[in-house]
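Category: protein sequence paired with discrete backbone structure
Discipline: computational structural biology
Format: plain text, a pair of labelled lines
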Amino acid sequence: MNHDAADVVLTRSVFGAPCWVSLTSRDLKATQDFYGAVLGWQWRDARLGDRFRTALADGVPVAGIAGVAGVWQVASAWTPYFAVADANETTARVRERGATVAVGPLSFPPGRAALVADRDGAAFGIWQGKLVTEWEAWRQAASTFIVLHTRDAFEAAIFYGEILDWASGLPGCCEVEYAQGGVLLRSRGEIVARIESGSVETPPDPSVRSHWQVHFAVDDAGPCARAAEKHGGSVLKEGEQEAVLRDPDGAQFTVTSRRER
């Protein structure tokens, strides 16, 4: 997580909802250069120290970059973070349900964080404490969206519901809707995430692993794909309105034309 002090929004007010996305990186400078070229992001320092940066799109915070991949011994990857009321309690639930706590919880000046993985290996983060400055602007701009690709969407929804108190009936909790062959997650009435499974008629592809995919809204996905190739990345899949890209460090992400979102 990357935070700057200003208007304070606490995770307990939006618990269970996606509250940020962050990239673990081995080389901050190279990462900033790549995403600046591909997505046009600008950068500012974050309060967590010189290993962290906040990405801005048109002045709105979009994502964080943490130059900790080597230090934490984790892969370079885009990771969604979910708001929790208590990081210790949430990581205990993760372990109790047969999943993995990879890092943390660690204390940072504005809160506490942990990197975890569900039972199928999909990595995600949890955050307890203050949310990023201009968090409401980040949420309302809908510049990012997350999708879990997994073997069984309904089983995954039960797991995450138990971990993050989805559909718990508690004030402010997220609501779960089973629709469109998968699961939609709503926070304050807005769809904030999807959980999708592969077609039941199709045998599992051993090359595809369960993972959270981070989508960024752009004006046009095509030029982003060309810029990624030009600056050392690669295009894994490309359609008319969407492209799945990989940065030079191996982190995968999706760009989606805004008119399609």
Observations:
- The chain has six helices and 16 strands.
- The first helix runs from residue 28 to 39.
- The two ends are 25 Å apart (CA to CA).
